[in-house]
Amino acid sequence: MKKIIVLSLLILFASCSTDTNNSKYLRWVGDSVYTLEIDTTEFKLCNSESSVRQYFHFNKGLQYKGEKEGLRTEFKQEYTAVDTDQSGWIRIRFIVNCEGNTGRFRIIESDMDYQEQVFDERIINQILKITQSLDGWKVQSMRDKPTDYYQYLIFKIIKGDIIEIMP
Known about the structure:
Layout: H1 2-16, H2 67-78, E1 88-96, E2 102-110, H3 121-133, E3 140-142, E4 145-147, E5 149-158, E6 161-166
Antiparallel strand pairs: 1-2, 1-5, 3-4, 5-6
């Protein structure tokens, strides 16, 4: 009887193990895998895909020079409000590599009730261009080794103007 139980447990453990390198699923919901059609070939991760850290791995707030006020200043100087009735949320998620460079930008747009909405291209293009040009991202380390990490910015838009930038 013991042999049957041990054999059953071995079979169970063997069937439950997964190889994340060959999985059809992403490691984390929202991981941004390289996509030829939208990503530049110049941006490179310093480490493996599986070692890109999520923002919840760090307890240090916004990882940008000058923190939130530095971001506000950049957008205040560069963004021109668009004359439209559109309001809602724009989230841009991207990776900062171990050298402080950014890439793999992904955008989600929604109305004020978080329902999918497509914003005027003039709004999206400006916000994306400014976000891509930000050059003050801090290098993060894990176990004294520089690492790649995800970062996100959420923009509250009211009638075509940026009212708030989060986090």
